[in-house]
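Subject: Interface between my chains keeps coming out wrong

I've been trying for a while to get a sensible model of this assembly. When I model each chain on its own everything looks fine, but I need the whole thing in one frame so I can look at the contacts. Pasting all components below, labels as-is. Any help appreciated, I'm running out of ideas.
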Amino acid sequence: MATEILMPALSPTMEEGTLAKWLKKEGDTVAAGDIIAEIETDKATMEFEAVDEGILGRILIAEGTEGVKVNTPIAVMVEEGESVADAAPKTRTESGTKPEPEPSAKAEAPRTPAAPKPAARAPEPDWPEGTETRNQTVREALRDAMAEEMRREDTVFIMGEEVAEYQGAYKITQGLLDEFGARRVIDTPITEHGFAGLGVGAAFGGLRPIVEFMTFNFAMQAMDQIVNSAAKTLYMSGGQMGCPIVFRGPNGAAARVAAQHSQDYAAWYASIPGLKVAMPYSASDAKGLLKSAIRDPNPVIFLENEILYGKSFEVPVLEDFTVPFGKARIWREGRDVTLVSWGIGMTYALEAAKKLATEGISAEVIDLRTLRPIDYETVLDSLRKTNRCVTVEEGFPVGSISNHLSAVIMREAFDWLDAPVLNCTGKDVPMPYAANLEKHALVTTDEVVAAAKQVCYR
Amino acid sequence: MAARKGAATANVSRDDLMKYYRDMLLIRRFEEKAGQLYGMGLIGGFCHLYIGQEAVVVGLEAAASEGDKRVTSYRDHGHMLACGMDPKGVMAELTGREGGYSRGKGGSMHMFSREKHFYGGHGIVGAQVPIGAGLAFADKYLGNDRVTFTYFGDGAANQGQVYETYNMAELWSLPVIFVIENNRYAMGTSVKRSTKSPSLWERGAAYGIPGEEVDGMDVLAVKAAGDKAVAHCRAGKGPYILEVMTYRYRGHSMSDPAKYRTRDEVQKIREERDAIEHVRQLLLTGKHASEDDLKTIDKETKEIVNASADFARESPEPDVAELWTDIYADA
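Reply #2:
Try treating it as a single job with all components included. I did that and got this:
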């Protein structure tokens, strides 16, 4: 009986991939364990093995096809004696890829024109009107930021696990070794505590290191060097010995990697005087903030997100585009409630705002972008307009950035509040593995919607 | 004096011996004064004295050249004086005053001098080791021939990051000299009670790093070993380990009653192995100096130390506004 071979998920966050190469052709006999194709994931090119033996009856997706969704049939296997003609697939499309229409996209269009729509303009844009933009993933934007800064300044270098020859565990450093060579793109042993400290020493010695942590979960091994050595030395030296260094990498939950690999450290680092903390959501912010971080004379914690790496945004085509620290971005103007978020939390905040609009609630959505410094003024200005605020973050609730924002708002704008500030955060539990539990452990769009309604007394 | 193995004295000049004597004596008198000021409540917190270990930094500084870097732990006063930092600025930092190297914001354990290439002064045991390798990394990256002296104690030698650093330093041939100041006690725990390794420097062999044991009570032996290590690094051969056998006469810090060793043990080393007395005898028996010459040096040293103490007392406390400065450098 003919069986379909489906596009595999080869990384925790892979949603689609490129069918780079077929290593078997139609009619070939395949044994279990044979490598039949090479598939490029969001992280790497992987070999794809056959699970069962049989004959490769028909190839459904031609090699070189990009954007093949996980679980799309890519080939049909037949058994011996079966003719290849029998292998007519049940689901075959002309192009080979059939992008799933977003079912929610249309349904979410506002049903009622009840609320006057806020102006569509993005307030205070980061680039001049009329600037050409290009659609880029966060991953590409981060790579470009590093490459541009490395071209600009020889003392900038990157070190970390798999950043050079492997081209980055998450492909963020792709191509950098080729352009800048092994002097400036340095593979380290697996030794976070050691190379974080070595990076700090290199910064004291006049260089501008970018230290990549494969993920920030592993940076806990390096916490002493980050906090005690990098953050505090300028102060302890009476201003003599600054530490211009960027610690960057993915932070927060990825997908199905469980408790030890899924944690948002934003609040940890943001509590340390001497550190700066950036947590971008969009590709343009990832690029502009990383360039600013590399130029900053202080230690910067740059918190990326694995799930956002593959998301695309418009990035301005400018020779030198930077985004300053401490300036929030208003993604959506609104009148009824202020949603404040940053990093991947913005995904939920923006989705919630869309849903709320269909119910006649106009939400203003603010992306803090940096968590040290924080642009309190933009939040407070918005709050004085909407009188209601919901914060959205993936981190744990206790001692969260959300808690801090609530305290600041209460102190600075108590009289403007028409409802208590509500915090939507990750749950107060270690991240579970099971798919259903994981979903519950994270903050959800529905929770944000419910919180917004609650503060609007709706 | 017990018989000494180690460096021959034939080639050492009078000037060198006099300098070693002066530099070691300055550290000892400075530390004695710091101990006094601590007792008077003028110095607070932790204060780790270097008395007994003077030959280590003085010998190694004699092997260093302009531009070489040094980084150490919290027992750092001797290192700062030996590399030429101003005793007034060091003492005023101990008293937490505006005239201190860190304007009173670092204290005994955290001082720095870009001018003298002194990179601290680090309070966390072992943390300075990867930092030292990073300084050496920067020099190699920039293409100069500087070396970095990275000092740590026998206690820090059991920290994991030391071995992470050994691995990278040898892998990348970094010009760093790891100086293990083995003063026999990690706070109150003797080396024998903390490891079964017969020697600490030999652990470098696991990473391919050469090294040797050095008599740390003999400044000439330290200088000779330092020369060898520096030559190794400058030749681009990578790191080198010196395990310098030394002894601290005082407690781990000012609040350490030092019950883990006998008075006799300390007394015996003071009498038989004291590094300053050793040079003093070389100067006298070699007819390089008279008792009067040495008395003059003693007097001058005391004056320097007294002046530093006066300065450290008179310098005002930092302005309260200093609380909020130097947290971030201007972007």
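Reply #3:
Confirming on my end. The longest strand of chain B covers residues 176-182.
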